[in-house]
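User: Mitochondrial pyruvate carrier, Drosophila sechellia:
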Amino acid sequence: MSKGTGPLSKLYNVTISTIDKFVPGAVQPLWQSPAGPRTVFFWAPAFKWSLVLAGLSDTLSRPPANISLNQCGSLAVTGLIWSRYSVVITPKNYNLLAVNIAVFIIQGYLMVKHLRWRSENSRNAVFNHSHYPIKSEDDW
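Assistant: Predicted structure for Mitochondrial pyruvate carrier:
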């Protein structure tokens, strides 16, 4: 239960108290858990699984040329950082650990997919950069 006194805390407390009455006995250990559905420790990772689904969608449908290294790198690094965080906080949040490891693996795979594509197509690339209008015939 929330200890806050604001209107959203009151709404949350009323909602949880109402739902408490309908939770079956078999689910009570999860429901009462310090990282269970009554806390933010449950809902933040639950919604973060949408990043995993988006990454899986990208692995299946996004062409390697359209993969952003900056975005994938940022998500992979945050996956590593939050994975570490999830096991040092109290309570230990294994759902947060699982989702962040999944984010790291999927985003790392997308980075490798793009870098492979870049390596295979580097000879065919045309580098036109607006700040460097000098045309060079270098074969690098």
